[in-house]
Each structure stands twice: as structure tokens, then as C-alpha cells.
Amino acid sequence: MLASTLYYGPARRQAVFMVLASFDWLGQGEVANRLRVAASIIDVAGKIDAASIGRSIMVLRRPRDLIRALFGTVPDGLVGTMQRLGHDPAGDPTTYMELQRLYFSRASDDKRRVKTLGQMTGELVGAQIEVVSMLDPVLLHPSFVASIREAKQVAELNAALSYIRARCSTATDEAVRASLSRLKPGEHRSILFRWWAHRFDRLPRTFDTRGDPTIVMLGTAEDLVSVSRRYGNCLQSKIGEVFVGNYVYAEYRPEAPEPGVIAELRVTTHGFFLEGLYAAKNRKVRAERAATVRQKLAACGVALLDHAPDQPETVAAAAQVLGLYNFAEPDNTGWGVEYDDPPANDLDELENALSEVA
Length: 358
Hints:
Layout: H1 10-21, H2 23-26, H3 28-38, H4 50-59, H5 63-71, H6 78-83, H7 93-104, H8 108-119, H9 126-134, H10 142-146, H11 154-167, H12 173-180, H13 190-197, E1 215-217, H14 221-231, H15 239-243, E2 247-252, E3 261-268, E4 271-278, H16 287-299, H17 312-322, H18 346-357
Antiparallel strand pairs: 1-2, 2-3, 3-4
Helix pairs in contact: 1-5, 1-7, 3-4, 3-5, 7-9, 8-9
């Protein structure tokens, strides 16, 4: 019977596969009766063997005739989708059952799924039937769906969208759908999620500054970008880490002209831990200023690194003898020298050198 489909187009072959798959949810006897009636074949009542079904399939040559025989009608677009599934089976019987369900469904979300299948260019793979069925309706965009090759990826993408909704107050259904238009054919789907990560405005972990006006939480992606520009550092590249809750950042903002300090706080199961203090350009912070910031952060419940319970000078001396450096201030080990005034840039240094030569 399958051999009889060899010289027919993809839609015809897929229609035959649909007939065979429908045995699973209609039963072979019901399928045989429906085909026999549609083909106007007068046969022994109740005859449901393969030969009887094959004879009906040969009579019902057009794909839409087979579909109409099985389900009574042919939904718009179904035959076209089957044509794009190619000559090979699209999957197991559940794939064809879901294809039939989608095209006969009246639910608005299912209509969006069908529309998306129709808007996708090129051939379809069987997995994409399952993908559009499982994917959050908000993510139903041709370019986005085309980037998903395996159904097992869908749960991860749906969960990531749920996280974005929780962290971004602007991530409404309408806004997410609009952002999907940013994806170009062939671009990786992660671009969409990175775009939204750079718009988060709800921290996964809250930090209580205990009313200290000089300690300011950087609670949004916009805050991180702004501070990164003011300090001339790489804080903007840490947005993803903050977005998923690995780190939070706070800024020490004293009265002018005293310079500020960035505090890098690692999130733990027991609160926050100070991992680093940084001045502008990632320079080290003066010892007395670093001590002030540590004291303020400790008052806010931030954990600080500590050493052996002995006199600091004694422990530091032992560390020096053992060659253990960056010991006294382990959370203030930024790059460069320790001073407040920014160093001259390369152009200034070049101009100075030229003036000396002259």
C-alpha cells in the first residue's frame, strides 16, 4: 500500500501517513468504513483489512479527498502544510494527531499556531508541529519558531519567558510580540532573551540599605549601564549575572568631592557577601575609604571576609612571611595603583613625551 504513494507528491504521501496514523485514535475499522463510504466502494460489510483500505486510498487520489473522507472537511491551509512536510513521515502517529487537532481547533491560540506554520518559509520538519503546539503563544513568530529544531527545547524557552515576565515590568504580551520582530532570519533565539535581560527592573534578590542614603542599590539594567559609563568600567557586561541573581551591585555615594565606590556583592543562601570594592576605571579604593564602605555594608547585613582571630598586625605579618599577598584587604584587589585622581590617558602621555623631546 505504501508503495502506491511513491510517485505522488508530498501532500499525497502525508495524507496517506495521516490515514495510517489515524488508526491510533479512530481505529482501523472506523477508518476503513469512512474511506469506503467516501470512495463509494460497495464491499462486504465490515471488511477492514489492509487491502480494503488500500483500495479506497487508490480511489481517493487527491490529498484533500483523503482528509475529507477521514474528518468530514478540509481546513484551510492543512494541505499546504502537509505539502511542506516532505516525502518522509513527519513523526509518529501523535504528530499527525496533533496536526489534525490544530487545524480543526477553534481556540484563538491554536489559530495563531496554524497561522505561524503558514508564515514559515521553506520545508517544515515534524518537530515544528510539536514545537508550535507546546510553545507559549506569545513566542509564536515565524523566525523564532524556525530557530527551534527540537521539541525538548520548548520547555526551557517557555520557562525563560516566564522569568523575563517576572523581572521586567514592561514585558507585556504585546511588548514581547513586538520584540520578536527584531529577530532576523537565521539569528539565534538567545538574542531575544538578551534584549529583554538588558531591560530588567526587578531584582531577583532585594537588598535593604537600612536607610543609609550613601548606599544605593543598582536595581535595574538601566542603573548598571549608567554607572558603567560614569565609572568607565565593565559593569554593563554584568547585567546577565545580576538578571539571574548571581550578583547584586551597590554604589557608595558620599558627598562631593569624595569619589564613589562600587561594591560587588555575591548572592548566597545566607544573604550577601562582599566580593570586591572598585573605584573608577576599576582602580583600587583607598584603605580608609574601603574601611568606611565595609562598615556601612556590614551594617546592612552584608558578610565580609575575615581572618584568624588574632591581632590583625600579627596575622598580616605571618601572611607576609608566607608570601600570601592581598591579605589585609581581600575584597579590594582591583587593578592598578591606589589613588583617587584618574591617570593620564595615552594621548596625554604622548603629548607630554613629545614636549619633553622638543
